[in-house]
Structure formats: structure tokens, C-alpha cells
Amino acid sequence: MAAAVKAAAKAAGDGKDEGRLLAGRYRLGAVLGKGGMGTVWRAQDETLGRTVAVKELRFSSGVDEDEKRRLITRTLREAKAIARIRSGGAVTVYDVVDEDARPWIVMELIEGPSLAEFIRENGPLTPHRAAEVGLAVLDVLRAAHGQGILHRDVKPSNVLIAGNGRVVLTDFGIAQVEGDPSVTSTGMLVGAPSYISPERARGHKPGPPADMWSLGGLLYASVEGVPPYDKGSALATLTAVMTEPVEPPKNAGPLIEVIYGLLAKDPAHRLDDSRARAMLSAVLAAPEPEPAPVVAAAAEETRQISLADAKEAADKAAAEKAEKAAEKAAKKERERRDREQRERARAALKAARKAATAAAATTAVTAAEPPKSKPSPVKAPLTDVMQRRTIVLAAAAVVVVLAVVGSLIAYAFSNDDKDPKDESKGGGKPTPAASAPKDPGGGTGNTSPKPSGNTGDTGGNANGSAGSGAGAGTGGQQSPAANQGQGATSGGGAGGALPAGFVPVQDFGFHFSMAMPEGFKQTGTAGENSGGIYSRDGGFPRIQVDYTDKPGNDARLAWAKAAPAVAGSSTSYRQIRIDAVDYRGYPTVADWEFEREQKGIKVRVLNRGFKLDATHGYAIMISCAADQWDGAECTQMRNVAFETFQPLG
């Protein structure tokens, strides 16, 4: 029997079985494909007169009898698993034939390339088409998971694209069926490394989230043309899957949130079927952007070019480069002078306080001394020792010094220290043109994300007491009645008249000033002391301002990465949008708008994250009760917050 199996396998490998009749019914034709464990044939069902596909199990040389039995069991399991799945995206099994002591699976023939072949020949898919493929695969996975079947090998080469556009998920050869014993060799991990989930790579028992991870990898490869985490070797790739963040996709567009949500390393935070389906459906519902026209490169075209024109263009480019370099240098110099002035002002203030304390102590000691019995000699008048002109000059010098010290102290604690010429770049009061555009809801342009991934959770100081909060050198109180010595001060703001009911607030710890409603004070600290949360009583409405000295270069990408974790940890989370927006010309700005339930209240959040420069990144998060979002109070609070925000330090 073993010899017969070996001879049959060799004949199949040589293609000599072409024309063979299986079970007196299926006539083998051309070989469609070969894999490590089988060959797929085109065949003709002579009984029903239709074309079918026949999958033949083949054994490589050196396979022992135990391994053969395991492979036969796996093949029969694949046939049973496919037969149980009711989905238009799953191939249909017609029959199983036993010949040469091996099973042959007769199934529906799908005329078309695999997704991997399609991408290789035609390039990556558009996000819209990739969403269509993703939904089709998701349909099959939903049906399979409903039958207790895990595919465990979702990847582009196992997805077929039929000529009519139909998407079919194939090859359930390593599927795991609930209740069946494992047929995988102990200690072996079967699958494509780039599409194996972190929990499977660690040897944990997989569930449906493992297939969802693989779907995320498939979507990534569909739009990027390469698999995620591909490090060359299987071991290096699996290590990256378990420990490294995925390389940000460049062509994902509206699919980026779905991809990051599916590729979350923690299966508990990974998108499930319903959320992934909703997000993919939203991508399909959105109008597909017109493809950018491809302009043929003319670099190799031979042309006559004027040397004078070329020199003029080169000089212009050099001048623009020099101008940008000069602006950058001037900006750095202004920032350096600002820092030095602030440091000198603080030093002067410290010295003045120290001198005042010493003078008070001296006065107290002098007052406490008893009168001496012996009268002290009468001192000569100062005019007897120094000329009057010298005295006048010394007094004038003292007045000048005091004036300078007073100016420095006032400068250190005011916000009007920017050159009026710099107002359009973030200093001084922003002009209306520098603010974000108004949205239909009356806000200042959508939502508010933050570079450090704030979620609005407090890290302490939720009692609203004065003097704590950011404390410890990070700010303190913001209300006008707060102790001005705690670091946060009222006054400064963006300059100019404020609307009635608003007061300016400064916080040097979190490096910002802003106008807030009267009665607002710091009632919480965000994250690990990344920012302050301000409200009247710890409820809503509230404003949260976060600061980081290491901002990223893509605010929208930062929000997209943070969204799945926030969604997983929030109650009744509903994302409204994540959009790149324009705000004062800052290099990267994005708004993240969503709803969730907090403290039993349905809350709507607008989180605007932006980067000023390499060491200043902020997020302004406005939260209001959802049913009051478009009301006068919340609308005005949003507008004033974005219009009066100023960076400090």
C-alpha cells in the first residue's frame, strides 16, 4: 500500500495523472497549483457535465506513517469544515473521493487569481476595494466562527478573486474545529509568520480574535503591497509580531483605524466582528476619491534648456533655502532670549524676596535690642562725607535698578511678552484668520486629539482643592482666586477683551495660557501628570489641556493609534471622526471627536492635538454633555478656548 501511495504521489508530481478518471466520474485536467501538502487540479465532472477543482493530498518523501495519518485526518477535517460554512465567500465542497489510500476533495472551481497574485501583477488595492475584500472575508469568518471553526491561515494567497469580482476565502487545511482533537504536531506553529497573531506566536490558545489579527494583516498587505512585520526570517518576523509596533501604513487612508484596531497586540483590545464590520462599511459608504492622474515622467526627455533660466532657477532655490534657514535661526534666537529673560526675571524676583525677608529680620532684631546706657557718638551727615552730586547720582542709579527689576518681574508673570509681529505664528493674541474654521455646530473645527494619547482620565486631584492638582512644579490653580504663588496665575491670556463670564488662566507647569469660564479650577490631573483637567466641580463641561515636550510628526496618526485602546476602555464609545485640520498654521493638527458614557452621562468630546515645534506639543480636549454640545455655553467655551490658547515657555 505504501509503495502504491508513493508511486501515485510521484506520478502527480510529474503531471502524469492528467486524464486520470477518479471514482469513475472526475476526469483530471491541468494542474492549477501545488503546495507543500497537495496539488489542485482542474477536472471535469462527467456525470453532471461541469468543471470542478480537485485537491489531491500528496506526501513528501520521508514522511512516516504517523505523519501520513495526521495529514489524511487534516484533509478530511478541511472538507468537513468547509461543508459546514454557509457563506457566499466560502468555496463549496461537492464530494470526497478515497483513492490510493488518500482523500481527494472535489470542490467548486474559482476562476481567478489569488489576492497575492493580483497585488503582485496589478499593484496594491485602493482602500475602497480593500474594504470590499475585507468585508467578504469577514463574512466567511463570521460564519466559520459561528460553527466553532478557526481558519488560522487568513492571508492574501488564500483569498481568490473571481472574474466577476467575487471574493472567496479558501484553504481551511489548518483550521481548528471546536471539539476536535488537534492534528498539529506538538510544539509546532503552522501558518504564515506575518499573519500569525501575537497570542498564537506565544503559544496561547487562540480564539476568533486570532483570525481578526490575520484579517488586519491582509488589509495591510492589500493597500501597502507588502505584509506587516516582514523581517525576512520566520523567527525574526514572529519576534517583531510579539514585540514591535507595525510600520505605519502609507496608503491606508480611511482604513488606517481599522488596520490598527485589528492589529492590536492584546486580543481583548482588538476589534471584534461587529466593530470591524461597522468601520469597513463606513469606508464603503464614503465617496471614493478620484484617483490622481498619473503624469508620465519626462526626466529622460531630451530638451534644450536655457542656461540663464537654469541659473535663475538655481539662484531662486538657493535664496529660498537661505531665507528658511534665516527664519529658523531667528526663531531659535528669539526663543533663547525669551528663556534667558524669564530666568533672569525669576532670579530677580527670588533675590528681591530674599532681600525683603532679610530686611524684615534686621528690623525685628533692631527693634528688639534694649537701649544702651552710653549715648552713641553723633555721626557726621552724609553730605560731610560725600558730595551732594554723588548722592544724587547714586539715588538715580537705585531708582533705575528698581525699575529694571520691576519690569523683569512684570515680564515674567505676564503673557504680553511676544513681539506683535509674531502674532500670526502663535505669539500674542491670535487673529480670527489664525483660528480654526467654524464648524456647522458652532465649534472651532471639529474635535480635539492629543499627541500623548490623552483620554480624559484623571490621575488624581479630583477633589478640586486649591494648591494641589498638577502641583509639584506643574502648575497648581487656575482660578483668579487661587494662590498666585502656586505656579498657575490668572491674567495674561491672549490679550484683549474677553467675553463676559471668562477669565484668563496661566499654567507654567503645563506651558499654556487660556481663557476659561469663571469658577473653573483644576479638578484633576491627566494620565501620568501629562496635563490638567479644569471644571467647576469635577463634572461637565470641562477642559483638559495636555503638554508633551516630545510631540510626534503626525497628529492624525497618533489619534488613529490611540482610538482602539480608548474605544476598548470606554463605555458606549462611538467615534464620530478623526480628521487632519488647519489651526494657526501649526505643522500637524488633528481633531478626534467621539461620544462615550462617563459618570452615567453621555458625553461628547472634541480633542484637538497639535505640534508647535520639536519640543512643544499640546492637546485641548473639550467635553460636554452630549445633549448640550450645541448649546450656547459649550459652543462659546469651545470657541474661546481655541481662540485664546497660547503656549508658554
TrEMBL record:
PANTHER family noted in UniProt: MITOGEN-ACTIVATED PROTEIN KINASE KINASE KINASE 20-RELATED, SERINE_THREONINE-PROTEIN KINASE NEKL-3
Binding, ATP: 55
Residue ranges that the Swiss-Prot or TrEMBL entry lists as coiled coil: none
Keywords attached to this entry: ATP-binding, Kinase, Membrane, Nucleotide-binding, Serine/threonine-protein kinase, Transferase, Transmembrane, Transmembrane helix
Pfam families hit by this protein: Pkinase (PF00069)
Signal peptide, first to last residue: none
Lineage: Bacteria, Bacillati, Actinomycetota, Actinomycetes, Kitasatosporales
Transmembrane segments: 391-413
Protein name: non-specific serine/threonine protein kinase
